[in-house]
Write the structure tokens for this entry.
Amino acid sequence: MSGFLDGIRCGDCECNVDWGERRNTIASVAAGVLFFTGWWIIIDAAVKYPTEGEFHHAYHTCGVIATVAFLMINAVSNGQVRGDSYSEGCLGQTGARVWLFIGFMLAFGSLIASMWILFGGFVVPQKHVYPGIAIFFQNAFIFFGGLVFKFGRTEDLWQ
């Protein structure tokens, strides 16, 4: 899964660009754009629907939890999870795996909660649907940005 950018071919030009060396840069920029887009969408919804009746401010909690999950997932390297480069600390490899598992649970939980808010708070009561869609897309973009940043980069260039 982490080698999907190694064999990418950009057209038939003779530019001889080695995408393997720029893989970390491309994955980082793509993840940053996804993360930024998620927060930009929810800021737009908050500005467009500023009152508590149109857009409850507690709904921002899902995005905050998704952001914390993004940081938790990417704080642990793949080498630490495999046990290649991490043998010290409180719990060692097991602690890294538990930390990563909790991060993924928070990420999936915030994505599911955003769907619940979308349908339970906006679709069923037949309110303006855009704030609910904005909450869902914010969490989806943050989630996929975290996946791209975690699995799109390679650690071979760090050593």
In short: The two ends are 20 Å apart (CA to CA).
